Amino acid sequence: MTFPQYFDGNELQVNIVVLPRDHNPLSPIITGQQPAIPDATVAFADANFSFGAQVIQGFGANPLPQPQALTDAIPVSTQSPANPREIFEAMANHLQIADQNMVNTNASLAAIPQSRQFQAPRPRNVSVYKHLPKTFLKATGLKAINNKNAFTDDTYHCAVKGAKFHPGFQQSGPSVSWGKVFAHILRQPLLARAAGFIYSFSLPIAADTFPDGGFLYLDLAEGSSFSPQFAAEDAFIKRYAARIPILRPGEPRQVFAPQLYPVLSIHDGNYDNLFIETAIYDDGFAKTVHCHQAPHRDPLIEEPDGSYPLTDAGIQLGWDDLQLLNWYLRQLSEDPSVSGPVKRLDAPIGVHGFVIDVRQQAGEGGTPGPWESLNQVSNRNAFALSRDPDTPNDAIVLGDFSGELPYQVYPMQLDGTEQVLGQPQPYWLPMYFANWTGHSMVLPDADAATVYQTTHPNVDADPDGQPATDKAGNPVTTGTGVSGAAQNRLNEIYQAGNLTAQLRYGEAYEFRVRLQDISGGSPAIERQPINETPSDIGFCRFKRYIAPIQPRILEIESNPQAAPGEVHPVTGIDGPNDLEILTIRRPKLSYPAVVYTGKYDDPIGRLSAQSNLGLSTAAADAEHRVGLGIADPDVDRVEIVVEIASLKLDKLDSVSGKDDYVHLYTTYRYFPAIGNDETQYEASLPIPIVYRDIQGTDKVLGTGSTQNLVQDLGLTADIDELTELVLPTSRTARLTIRAVCEDKETEAQTEAYYGVLDEANPEMDVRYGASFTVLLYQPSQDETGLLVQTAGIPALQGIYMRSDARTVFDGTWNSLLLGKSRDERTSNIQHLADRLQLQSNGLTLYAPKGKRVVFGCSSRIRHSLAPDGSSITFASKGDLFNHWLVCMNYELDRDWMWDALETEAFQLRRSKKFTHDTEEGEVDALVGTLKLIRTASFESLDGPQRTSTRLVFFDAVEPKRDEPGAFPDTISLSYQLEPRFKPDHGTVNDPLEPVEMILPITSPPAQVPKIVSAGYALSPYVRDEKYENSESRKRFLWIEFDKPIEDPQDCYFARVLAQAPDQLLSNNHPSLLQAPEEPRLPLDPEPIRIVSPDSSNDLAGLNAMQPMLKSKDSDVHYILPLPPGMHANSDEMFGFFTYEFRVGHFERTGATDADPPEKVWTTAQGRFGRRLKMQGIQHPAPILSCMPNRDKDKIWVTAPYAVAVHKGKNVTADPPRTELWALLYAQVKRVDNRDYRNILLDDRPLDWRVQVTNELPESLLENYSKQEMQLLQQITWKTVKGQGVTGNAGKFLKLKALTSRNKHATKYGTTIWTNAEVHQLLRLYGLPVTASLSVVVVEVLPRITNVFDHVSGLEDALVAQSTANFMNSSQQESFTQSYQQRYAANASGSAAPVQTNSPVNEELGHHRILRSSRLTKVPDICCTDCD
């Protein structure tokens, strides 16, 4: 194989690589193939090679090299090794070589086990894969990848994560083949030359040597070892040519062969892509170098998310990812362009390794420094190989070596699936090819070996039966698996080249990669690439992605002086403790990150000293046990986040949003200044801790928008200005402590130093380290003002509810058939919730959003509480009815974080008695407890108001007495809520005073009224001395009940249900026959009745009915009061009433006779008992007023007719059906002269159609029509009852003007006596004409015998039709005939007969009298008989 090196302008330096195939180099190279190939007598180890160079100019004739005549070869001069055999023999002694003494025949080669045979090319889909990292895509700008074996998605990640453990996997044994031995030798150029693998020569280059480029390969010169065999069979030696670019004398350049081409007469396969690749890389430099620094502890993740690396892997490097993939694909995968049996393109890779150069980037405007090789090494001692491991002093001295060892990149399979299961799996190239940690890329890290003691002879292997497993549960080991020092002794052989570029945080570095061929040749470090690209130099700003670990806290570290079994005062306690100081030191930073900070003069020495502590058995509790590292010099302060434990699920205001805490404050405490003394990095920071009760009256710790630390904690300055930490008592405080790295002098320097800066989210900011939490707690002393009254809600309420279910038929067929019902009332549970400012759902009460409510309930009510007491569900509505629910309601004036009470936080005690009982009753009975479970409900977390907690307790009080026959009474209650503090808490507190309340009577009277009789009660008859006048008598309706009131505090009550006009008075229009709707009892329905301690007797329901007036001498007789809004002379009193009667709670007599009676306090619904409905009740009719008058000619009397009223409207029959009669009396003295009596002189009817006039003028009579004259005569005749001469009275009467009067006004009747007639009557009784006269008017009810008398206005056809609608068919037929006869057009209008018999005289006793007036004196005049 030919490898051009450097063209200095005159000569081209060339390296030759001669490699035997996988056979024994100590035996003759071939035997057993005669006569085709002569047997060799020389082994490869003894060969003496000479070469001839073959130059093929240009590519016009054939783009691939073809064999040239041996005579055309240019002899070259090479130097043969001194003794290759001793190298191979020494290697055979050191290694366990399979078939070490193999005879080199074709049969022997074919007999090599398959496991050691060259692998056949693999299908492309199971050949080689490569993940292209983001830095490569950014460097190249590629958007689309034209290679199915390259991936940019998560295929690689999934493959790595999905790799499986196979118990049957077999590791490679110690046995190696000769081919692997050759490969190992090639890694050391000096050893390879001594073994006869590498030769060098210089080829003069003229202008016509490679004017257009060409190929260069080597043939064996005549006389060279194995030339006879090569001459017999040219395939005996495979020759590979290097493609040479244009070389012009005087124009030096690097020449590199990344790809070799077989020298054949006929080539099989497509080599087009190889020409391009060779042209690109013929200068020996990588074209795309990209750098990356791992920002995540998972190396597969390329973007930071807060999970930063635990150790720094330095700078990751990659280069020409797609090209390396293609090179490996060409070597390992099938090539479809090849037609031969072996589907592999015959084109070996010339690249054997890589050389990585680094230089520290110059500052702005500066000149870049020189490149430095990270592969440069030199031998520490003369390079030698012992002939036998047992005799190390018998060595083959090879000389000194100073050069660059190759950095090699290989693909690998991720697990043993292919070996164990036989399922072909692809090989994966690594995501990045190299990591620079500040040291040589080809030697082990000597500093790491020193720090971690890997070269110490006492290193132990993993113990047998180690239980460690991977994520899949498969057993794994955690160490080397071997005992003793690490066997890699490269650092004993080589020393790395000088390196001025130190890897430090905040600095910028540039990288380039030189290619190294199999001969060890590569461009010199001072060379520059000829084919430059924008990305042939990679850049990386090395930043710190290692977040600080937890700070060291003295109080939490183990105590070396602790006795065996002694519990640690902090970590040994399951829960908070009461530390009074924290002593904090900087966290440790391990290797190599602490070196990258550049702040220690000798970090390795400090790390080694600490590491050496682990070798001492006396150092069991030494500092190194905390972790191998030294104080992180970037850390200058600690951040202390103080959060207060809140209720479970209350996570919204915690710093993370995931914990049950509320953020109180965040503060920083700085470590002592370092100065110039780096030992001060280990200095301690003491932080005192002070616990204080919340200051102020409310004892509430404000958080969020309500926070006021200065007031609540009594701070003398801002918390950041204090030395100590101030924490509230009775609250669990969580201190989250983490180290924070310093800010650099400028913002730009800070950004350059740290990998991720995020002020808004410290979890993403790499300056903020891993946190450590400490739970602290101390009891409170002052717990005054524990409970306050909730605004707008009394502390104690008595609640009485009635059933709210009421099924009604809504008139639809669906409701009729399906039984649909609707609730006419709002649910009383809803009423209860509204009263208590709670929410309800069905039978469940719970808190409004943002509020915390804790419920408790007496066992007297069936219920279920939520586990945290945040809601209560009653078993049924029936459990809430017909007894008092006493609700105790307080506001716990403490924030949600406060935790000074036991779980059973409050006890509720009750005293109870019926108010007027003489016995003591129930005293201080425990009715229940309130539990404060430290869990928040979902409702309370919607906009949480953490300043208080409502306490709601329900108790049941039965309103009925247990004694049979006992009467209802009010109930006197007293409740006291007692807090139960934890031990040592609340030594100063103010017990709550008992809350007292009286509950009204809720049980209605059981007695039902029953009427026995009724009647009128009249006031005494009163008249004047001469019996000329009498007073109107007061009249009342009395009711007699069957039995007296049973409960002394009760009374009979009455209420009007309906009023209707008297049908004897009314016009009885059909519209009046419609039955009115009965009014409901005007009581508050009281679906929920609420009483508080401030409530007093509100006389609920007392005005719904009228109490009846009890007789003074009877327990069963009661006066029925007039209906509300009416008086004794109201027109409605002519009608009939429908009443309901009930027994109701009324009043209790005073304690003494001097004390006024006390009204009984009841609920509205508990006021009255069951009713008795009574119809047709008529109060005494209004007083009939009589108005007599007299002049020189006559006496006339005027009086009103009774009026029928319906709903305020006059519905009196027209004409009136009642009759008014005036009785004229004369007063006479008794014989014994002791008193006066009245003698009835005469009686006459009153008529509403006439009025009195002094004398009817003739002119007025002339204006009357014939009918009016007849009517006037008829009325006059009626007035005098058909006796005497009508003209005497008639001349003083005239008809009223009907058109001008109000038809709905009360009608007044008038009658008249002339003085002459009166004188005649007086003389008839022998009385003087000057005798005193008085008048009484009597109103007589009519006699109705037919419908025409009953209904007024039947002459109107509409009225007649409406009336007929109330009749059956036979009645309608008779009514029609009568109607036609009465109102037919030809019906005779004969005058109505005139009644002459007086119902108050001749027919007295045959007529019903409606009412009568008082006796009224007729005015006296001077002369009654003057002309």
Structural overview:
The model has no long low-confidence stretch (mean pLDDT 89). Strand 45 and strand 46 form a beta hairpin. The strands form 21 sheets. Strands 37, 38, 41, 44, 47 and 53 form a 6-stranded mixed β-sheet that branches. This protein has a 5-stranded antiparallel β-sheet with strand order 4-3-10-11-13, with no helix packed on it. Strands 65, 66, 70, 71 and 72 form a 5-stranded antiparallel β-sheet that branches. Helix 11 runs parallel beside helix 14. The chain has 1427 residues and is an alpha+beta fold. It has 25 helices and 72 strands.
Q: How many DSSP helices? A: 25
Q: Which residues sit in consecutive blocks of at least 5 with pLDDT less than 50?
A: none
Distance between the termini: 181 Å
Helix fraction bin: 10-25%
Shape, please? elongated
Number of strands: 72
Query: Looking at the chains present, what oligomeric state does this protein adopt?
Result: single chain
From the alpha-carbon coordinates, what is the Rg to the nearest angstrom? Answer: 63 Å
Mean pLDDT: 89
Strand content: 25-35%
Biggest β-sheet description? 6 strands, mixed
Number of domains: 6
Tell me the structural class: alpha+beta
